[in-house]
């Protein structure tokens, strides 16, 4: 038995002791996590800059600030979340009473990605702690500076039998754990390709999963859209973190009558946001590693570069780039781009635009820019997606009152706020029946009771 598996067995024993289940314990752990994160705020900024060239401001808005907000939500609402839900009881079971209680699942595994390495590992952890579980954390090895500071944050406050931080190459560490230990839930954020592998391993042991994946999130710009707002909101969502965001607009479908205006506005906005030399900009990040750099650079050959296109391998820099004249059969229109390259395709009719979207159904996100309420509603109904924004991009994930997750190839399950607590909880149905009433009609012989049964059970 490997060292990691031995530690997992100890976690199972710790969970069985009941130590993690009380309200006071859970709340205290959330507070300890918040305190540890706060004490390492500058270290987090330094690590995220080293891994992805994120500024402290971008880090706060997209990483540790979101985590603090999630912690505050959990701390302030935990008692209410934990309370049983009273529900009605049907006629056949009267005078019983019914309720739903929320039980922790047990020992859960959370696997984080490299693009938002802090937020996307720690936010699910908050829900798992709030729900009363023991948690194994597996960060991405591709963001080593952030990996190191997260290890310090976790191990300073949590014993390994409660929260276990496991480093190493995911391709070997994760299968070793999942094939030799039965987790009670696996939460994975990352690529669809790896998500399928995780899902298959979990299925072998009937382990439930949450898969936060990705895909090609389309953005439709109608003729009646506010062009200045379109350019600003698309540019900040697409080129934040150098485009390495699962809910970034993957490509634009722009009504032919405003395509030139949108293109011009985007060019102007990109320069306003990131200057004429984004590689030197305080506000612009870098690509995570050479593998991703090479992959994204290959997309630059898949259309006409209308803006940008400069690269620097040494700095892992790819300029914000707008592509036109893009064929639907090229890799840039079939792969998830996950980088600062934005194809722009014009359309004449809604059916024409929808046909493009339907090539990659069930995107993680879908965005609509229009000032017409009927058009907005028509698009929402026409395109199934994990989540959507109207006249905005990506910001729906920052609202903890909304569930965040995909559907189909873009994911399975959801989280954020109360939804994270529910993801890591089992809803146990409980019915309590008094003994003072025990009518004979419920018991054999049943002959002659059909009419009465039909009246009671309907």
TL;DR of this structure?
This protein is of the alpha/beta class and 458 residues long. It has helices spanning 3-16, 23-39, 41-52, 56-82, 119-130, 144-157, 170-178, 192-204, 227-239, 259-274, 290-298, 350-357, 373-382, 418-423, 450-456; strands at residues 85-87, 97-104, 107-111, 134-138, 163-165, 185-189, 209-212, 218-221, 251-255, 304-307, 311-312, 317-318, 321-324, 341-347, 365-369, 387-390, 411-412, 425-432.
CATH class of the largest domain: Alpha Beta
Structural class: alpha/beta
- Count of distinct strands: 18
Range of strand content: 15-25%
**Mind telling me the C-alpha Rg?**
25 Å
Question: With helices defined by DSSP (H or I, 4 residues minimum), what is the helix count?
Answer: 15
Helix content: 40-55%
Overall description:
There is one protein chain. The chain has a seven-stranded mixed β-sheet with strand order 10-13-14-9-8-15-16, sandwiched between helices. Strands 5-4-3-6-7-17 form a six-stranded mixed β-sheet, sandwiched between helices. The chain has a three-stranded antiparallel β-sheet with strand order 1-2-18. It starts with a helix and ends with a helix. The protein is built from 15 helices and 18 strands. The model has no long low-confidence stretch (mean pLDDT 97). Helix 3 (41-52) packs across helix 4 and helix 9 crosses helix 10 (259-274). It has two domains: 3-213 and 407-430, Aldehyde Dehydrogenase, Chain A, domain 1, CATH 3.40.605.10; 218-398, Aldehyde Dehydrogenase, Chain A, domain 2, CATH 3.40.309. It has 458 residues and is of the alpha/beta class. Helices cover 41% and strands 17% of the residues.
């Amino acid at each position: 038995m490997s060292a990691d598996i031995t530690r997992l067995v100890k976690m199972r024993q710790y969970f069985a002791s009941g130590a993690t289940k009380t309200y006071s314990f859970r709340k205290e752990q959330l507070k300890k996590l918040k305190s540890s994160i706060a004490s390492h705020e500058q270290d987090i900024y330094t690590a995220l800059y080293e891994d992805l060239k994120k500024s402290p401001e971008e880090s706060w808005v997209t990483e540790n600030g979101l985590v603090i907000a999630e912690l505050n939500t959990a701390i302030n609402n935990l008692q209410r979340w934990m309370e049983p839900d009273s529900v009605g009881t049907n006629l056949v079971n009267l005078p019983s009473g019914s309720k739903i209680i929320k039980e922790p699942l047990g020992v859960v595994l959370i696997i984080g990605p490299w693009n938002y390495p802090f937020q996307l590992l720690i936010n699910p952890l908050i829900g798992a702690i709030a729900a009363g579980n023991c948690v194994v954390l597996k960060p991405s090895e591709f963001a080593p500076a952030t990996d190191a500071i997260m290890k310090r944050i976790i191990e300073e406050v949590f014993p390994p039998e409660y929260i276990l931080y496991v480093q190493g190459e995911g391709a070997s560490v994760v299968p070793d754990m999942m094939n030799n230990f039965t987790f009670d839930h696996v939460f994975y954020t990352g690529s669809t390709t790896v998500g399928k592998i995780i899902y298959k391993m979990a299925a072998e042991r009937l382990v439930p999963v949450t898969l936060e994946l990705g895909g090609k999130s389309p953005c439709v710009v109608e003729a009646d859209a506010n062009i200045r707002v379109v350019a600003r909101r698309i540019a900040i969502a697409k080129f934040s973190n150098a485009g390495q965001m699962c809910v970034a607009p993957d490509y634009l479908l722009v009504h032919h009558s405003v395509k030139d205006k949108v293109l011009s506005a985007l060019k102007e906005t990109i320069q306003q946001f990131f200057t004429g030399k984004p590689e030197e900009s305080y506000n612009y990040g870098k690509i995570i590693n050479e593998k991703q750099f090479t992959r994204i650079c290959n997309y630059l050959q898949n259309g006409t570069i209308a803006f940008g296109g400069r690269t620097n391998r040494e700095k892992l820099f790819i300029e914000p780039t707008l592509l036109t004249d893009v064929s639907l059969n090229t890799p840039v229109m079939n792969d998830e781009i996950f980088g600062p390259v934005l194809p722009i395709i014009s359309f004449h009719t809604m059916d024409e635009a929808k046909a493009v979207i339907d090539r990659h159904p069930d995107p993680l996100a879908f965005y609509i820019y229009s000032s017409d309420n009927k058009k907005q509603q028509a698009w929402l109904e026409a395109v199934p997606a994990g989540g959507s924004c109207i006249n905005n991009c990506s910001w729906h994930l920052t609202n903890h009152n909304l569930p965040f997750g995909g559907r189909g190839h873009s994911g399975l399950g959801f989280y954020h706020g109360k939804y994270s607590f529910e993801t890591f909880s089992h809803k146990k149905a409980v019915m309590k029946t008094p003994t003072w009433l025990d009518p004979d009609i419920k018991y054999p012989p049943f002959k002659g009771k059909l009419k009465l049964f039909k009246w009671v059970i309907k």
